[in-house]
Here is the input.
Amino acid sequence: MAGLILEARGLDVLLGDYQVLWDARLAVAEGEMVALLGPNGAGKSTLLNTVSGLLRPRAGAISFRGEPIAGLPAHRIVARGLAHVLERRRLFPYLTVEQNLRLGAYPAAARAGREAQLARVKALFPVLEARGSQLARTLSGGEQQMVALARGLMAQPRLLMIDEPFLGLAPRVVAELAEAIRRINGEGVTIVFIEQNVELALSLATRGYVLESGRVALDGRSADLLRSPEVRRIFLGG
Amino acid sequence: MGLVYALIAAGLSLIFGLMEVVNFAHGEFLMLAMYVAFFAWSLARLDPLASLPLAALALAALGWATYHGVIRRVLGGPMLAQIFATFGLGIFLRSGAQFLWGVDFRTVKEPLLAGRLSVGGVFVGLPQLAASALALGAFVGLYLFLSRSETGLALQATAQDRQAAALMGIDTDRMFALGWAIGSACVGVAGGLLAMFFYIFPEVGGPFALLAYVAVALGGFGNVPATLLAGVLVGLTEVFAGLVIAPAMKYAVVFLLYLAVVLWRPQGLFGRF
Ligand SMILES: Nc1ncnc2c1ncn2[C@@H]1O[C@H](COP(=O)(O)OP(=O)(O)OP(=O)(O)O)[C@@H](O)[C@H]1O
Ligand SMILES: [Mg+2]
Here is the structure.
């Protein structure tokens, strides 16, 4: 279908013997911002990990920019322009902030524009400049999340997937990060992010997917989901 | 000598730091490197100093092949399988060496460097001195590679978080193979240096490997810079115990030091770098 940057269909994914995803799907149009919602353990992270190549689906198809990517190793998928910021930031703790950022542009295609992109992400998050030579593990949670986002952007991705960017952060920092994500999207980078807070997620995204027990329970435009009694049932248990 | 221990230990530490696999065939790798130096001398009249690059390359190839042929198959498996895999490889290499080359002690005769120097009243063998200097050089080279080069940083990233590294576009499987190659090349250089002044026989690797395990544990597993200090410390302890207490007791004192550190600071003297 034209206009889709990412399309995943019929994904069955197992962790060990335990099936986490059942016939999961995700379709994202070029330039969109999509939220992935669902209670703890619903399989949200598993879905993104499968798309980025960290996990292999038992069944199903994934296409990115019109080409099949299911089964490719993760490092080849990044090189095609799909960056993934993992849950809990996952910086390289014993490398400096600057080294973390530079590694984000490891793929050959991104390496050429590394310096220019470095300047761009530092403009987006000014605090990175001052923290450059510090070990990543010594930063605060909010600063670490900024480094994680910036490191993902260093690959100059067309699609950026972010797993729970706001987890455990103070409201002021959440607002700051949400604004940054909006700006990244405004500059043409398609975004998929995971967030458990329905209001926050749907105020930021144009569309959302709701996962429940490993299946896509429903999806739709943010405004529709906000009014949906089904969403209320899943999240409020009502 | 401490610097040579440090280099052997660095190879071990690098591989462990990268993927938490202990190479129990490390001593046998060292033995093979010494035989490479020996045969380069006996067949082609190449001095161990001249054949050093050859020993390094041969061991790098061995490390690479070990990763692809053995380690990769047991990576997902239980810890015991990993231990037995490298342990078994060590036994195989040792018996292979006995079978092919016998149990005789061999030496490289008329090495390029011989004799002793008097440094402030203490006699130091010239080959030992050269070995220490070259080992230090190799160590510094390894350190600069790991901390400065693009590939070195990718290796560190892989060691610190394999999944996150893959998402940076790093081929972590290639990094593992490279880590084995570089870690083994360290032993290759160390073996070539030792061949200048040490007997060469199939069992020669054992004590060196033990001292290397001690140095790695002292420095903190996976902490490559700290293994340099730990290796020197082990070397000094060995020499002083040999001089002050009794030569027969020198290993006992080294292991006492090891026990003290393991009980008192299990993460190593220096922890993580
Ligand atoms: N390594 C694992 N082995 C087996 N099961 C796992 C493993 N990791 C996660 N699970 C299970 O898989 C299911 C989905 O996990 P996943 O992390 O994808 O959920 P999530 O929606 O991201 O949850 P959260 O909001 O807590 O991050 C959970 O039930 C979890 O218990
Ligand atoms: Mg999750």
